[in-house]
Amino acid sequence: MDLPVYEVFAIKYAHREARRPEHFIGGDPHDTPMPMDYFVWLIRNEEHLILVDTGFSRETALRRNRTSLRTPLEGLALLGVGVEQIREVVITHLHYDHVGTFDDFPHAQFHLQDDEMSYATGRHMRHARFSHAYEIEDVVGMVRLVYKDRVTFHNGDADIAPGISVHRIGGHTAGLQSVRVMTRRGWLVLASDASHYYEHMETARCFPTTFHLGDMVEGYDILRRLAQSPLHIIPGHDPLVMQRYPAVSSELEGIAVRLDVDPKQ
User: Fold this and answer.
1) Which residues contact 134 (CB under 8 A, 6 or more apart)?
2) Choosing a second label site near 76 at 20 to 30 A (CA), which of 10, 106, 135, 204?
């Protein structure tokens, strides 16, 4: 059976300056700049429209010393997408920069891994090493949505639409999931924080905020198996994504890029 194909967009909503030693377990001998971009991702065709992650608010940006450029909802509006169109949202994990502003999407059903909810509400959150990347109100807010039947849970791999599936990777958090999408150029994988930067999966190094090192390193192999090729894997925070893929339009240069087309030569 032929699968439908989708357009896929990365929308940049925030930024922070950082240096290489901050992004690798064990640091890095090269103390040079390595900035971080923050994205949400949009998947759509004529039948389906799915948002992947919901970013963070301006208030959270101020508190955590991040540069907020626009809210995710404002970024979506630049692509002509209104809040009433967002009916399905994949939350890759419950860290502050992936589930914040969830309440801006009152019509949405949220897709989450069982393991992620268990992790974010369980014993490991006693430890700042794991809990520092969570915002309590985001986690509690998602629990409230469970009681309103607005969270669809998955236990591992699952299809959420024809040609779109989620895959539990773990590593960075206990229940992190990546998203696989059929596009005109083949299977594309939105890794999210299964690999923050291209360099992590290319060199088998790990980001310091990691729950399970073994799962993270094994996860790089899972990403490669799921994707059409390594060039079809999109990391979660790498500014190179904005350089490697074409802007949606000249007006959206530096704001939104197309991931379902071939990267620039």
Assistant:
1) 94, 95, 96, 120, 125
2) 135
